[in-house]
# Entry
Amino acid sequence: GAAEGTTLIADTQTGGRGRRGRTFASPEGGVYLSTLLRPAPNTKTGLITCLAAVAACRAIESLCSLWVEIKWVNDLFLNDRKVAGILAEGVLAPDGTLSAVVLGIGINVYGTLPPELSTIATTLEREGVTLAREDVAAAFLNEWERVYADTDAAMAEYAKRNLVIQREITVVQGHQTYPAHAVGITSEGHLLVRTPDGEERELSSGEVSVKL
# Structure
């Protein structure tokens, strides 16, 4: 029953999670934010994760000189290490229609990451930038309002920032894993890939890995 835009921010999370039910490490020093959206019936809800990625990139860059990249579909990278993750989940009404979307994002601002993540993740502080968590959260929410109102420009930026384009990747869809070449991103946020036998596919879901 809460209004659209209602936002909760945590200092840390004991049960943070990412896509496919994975654990999302949430130590002190990060921004862990969830905001409630009530999209209009004609809203392309599949774009929400993409738009949030662009908003987060812009937010970080508005506070420092770092260039942030996006790894399709929902991770942000700095210097080849993950600095943020995004998860958007739908809330269904009793009649089965979509009543809301909860957009969650975690941004590593400062602090100590778990040892097992030290080689694959980073923080803004580790990259030489000292920022207050509240400034990062406020910048994200401000940028989110802008991208939510102008999705076309934001999606063009999403494609431009994607680090997987024109690279060899591994696609994971369910129990299927296969190599492919990432060709581009559609206006819907889908990933266009070409398999070794020349078949072109348009991926609307799944995950990819790329050697950085």
Summary: The longest strand covers residues 81-92. The chain is about 20% helix and 35% strand.
